[in-house]
Design goal:
It is a single chain. It contains twelve helices and twelve strands. With 345 residues, the chain is of the alpha/beta class. It has a domain of 99 residues. A hairpin with an 8-residue loop joins strand 1 and strand 2. Helix 4 runs parallel beside helix 6. The radius of gyration is 22 Å and the shape is globular. The structure holds adenosine-5'-diphosphate and magnesium ion (MG). The site of adenosine-5'-diphosphate (ADP) has 13 residues, from strand 1, strand 2 and helix 1. Magnesium ion binds next to helix 1.
């Protein structure tokens, strides 16, 4: 039921006009092309896919930094997909976005204290004391020393800046946080501390989160549920456990096989599948299943029929693939590769 969800997205599309009208090269870029999502209260949904698959565009639509071409976005039961900026104001405090690069998203001329307090100021909280108390609490919650308040962003490390971005995002207690590649610009050693902080804040404050990343291991660490995106569509979505235990879509299987595995014994057992070719352009979408040009197991039907995202193996496990059928198990893309190798020897 959508009433229980903090966010419900149906049929979301965002098309851009690319190229040049003058040169006659104008074309439609289908960045997001029919996406359904839901996020329950207190849930972290990981949105994962290669660069260019449309993840950031989903994040920008959901936070209404941009207006979708079509579809509905329900935040706390209210459709915000077509609201004007003025009409959005009452709901602005309920959703906050955190970006990849905390340096470019933090105003370099403001102190850390001013940056964290800014959402309170925008909300019209004029009492200096009230704002100071809010900032002190958020510095504490994000593991920053109180004296950071008078510093400027350039004096902080990348990890500290992302802590500031989280403090600022959460000071108004939004119901939904959209985090777009929030650790991708950080050293691997710092990533874990920021992910752990986000989990801790989520447990303490209870917000929902749309966590966007191209990195499957990051998404595996943080998410309750995962949606795999390919060329503007969700191709598979289910709980984290199920996705890693029983990946169905050939694209998900390929992503998983390429992800680093901490356990060497597991890594040996998992055959690496390298996807052929690059991600096709969102301006020249393949017909049929949009993954068929890179799919190791595609059949004729995949080149003509666009598969719907449906529950095949379980109601909470949706897959968009013609080859996934009840009782048959997922298509084994590594078996196909082994057969290929046998033929060539
Ligand atoms: N403002 C824009 N104008 C034209 N094309 C865009 C714009 N923003 C994104 N795109 C295109 O939309 C597709 C999806 O981009 P994006 O949402 O940034 O993907 P991701 O975050 O998964 O890397 C890409 O092909 C990108 O070039
Ligand atoms: Mg992006």
């Amino acid at each position: 039921m959508s009433a229980e969800n903090v966010l419900t997205v149906r049929g979301l599309t965002k098309h851009y006009l690319g190229g040049s009208r003058l040169r006659g090269t104008q074309h439609v870029v289908r960045a997001v092309d029919g996406v359904d999502l839901r996020i329950a209260a207190g849930e972290i949904l990981g949105l994962v896919g290669e660069s260019g698959s449309g993840k950031s565009t989903v994040g920008r639509c959901v936070t209404r930094l941009t207006t979708p071409t079509s579809g509905t976005i329900e935040l706390l039961g209210k459709d915000i997909s077509r609201r004007s900026q003025r009409q959005l104001r009452p709901l602005r405090r309920e959703v906050h976005i955190v970006f990849q690069d905390p340096y470019s998203s933090l105003n370099p001329r403001m102190t850390i204290g001013e940056i964290i307090a800014e959402p309170l100021r925008q909300q019209g909280i004029r009492s200096r004391r009230e704002r100071d108390l809010g900032v002190a609490e958020m510095l504490e919650r994000t593991g920053l020393r109180q004296e950071m308040r008078t510093r400027y962003p350039h004096e902080l490390s990348g990890g500290q800046r992302q802590r500031v971005a989280l403090a600022r995002a959460l000071i108004r207690r939004p119901r939904l946080v959209v985090a777009d590649e929030p650790v991708s610009a950080l050293d691997v050693s710092v990533q874990a501390s920021i992910l752990n902080l986000l989990l801790e804040l989520q447990r303490d404050l209870g917000f929902s989160c749309l966590f966007i990343s191209h990195d499957l291991s990051v998404v595996e660490f943080i998410s309750d549920r995962i949606a795999v995106m390919y060329l503007g569509r969700i191709v598979e979505t289910t709980s984290r456990e199920r996705l890693f235990r029983e990946p169905q879509h050939p694209y998900t299987q390929a992503l998983l096989s390429a992800a680093p595995v901490p356990d060497p014994a597991l890594a040996r057992g998992r055959e690496r599948v390298i996807l052929r070719g690059d991600l096709p352009s969102a301006a020249a979408m393949p017909a049929g299943c949009r993954f068929h040009t890179r799919c190791p197991v595609a059949v004729d039907r995949c080149r003509t029929d666009d598969p719907a995202l449906v529950g095949v193996t379980a109601p909470d496990h949706l897959v968009a693939c013609h080859l996934v059928e009840p009782g048959r198990g997922a298509p084994d893309i590594t078996a196909v590769r082994r057969a290929d190798a046998d033929h060539s020897t």
